[in-house]
Amino acid sequence: MVHAAKGIFISCDIPMAQFIINYNASLPQSQKFIIHVLDGTHLFVSSNVDGMIRSAIQEFREKNTYEKPA
Question: Which residue from 18, 44, 41 is spatially nearest to 33, judged by alpha carbons?
């Protein structure tokens, strides 16, 4: 029997993939979005979470960006 799922294929570097996996793990079971981890740099996720992932990455980057003191 074939099981089909609509989703988004994400290709990224290993640290970003680990960030997405850890972000998914921090959510309650009902909100988890990773369908399958293909390998260290490729993920298959639910199609309705692209905005949520983008905003989490943007927030992470803003927190971890060095700003030279004036």
Answer: 44
Residues written for the chain: 70
Distance CA 32, CA 49 (A): 10
Q: What is the pTM of this model?
A: 0.84
- Distance, in Å, from the CA atom of 70 to the CA atom of 36, rounded to the nearest integer, reads 45
CA 70 to CA 55: how far, in whole Å? 28
pLDDT tens, residue by residue, 13-49: 999 999 999 999 999 999 999 999 999 999 999 999 9
d(CA 66, CA 5): 40
CB distance 20 to 12 below 8 Å = yes
Structure token pair of residue 3: 């099981």
What is the identity of the amino acid at 58?
A: Q
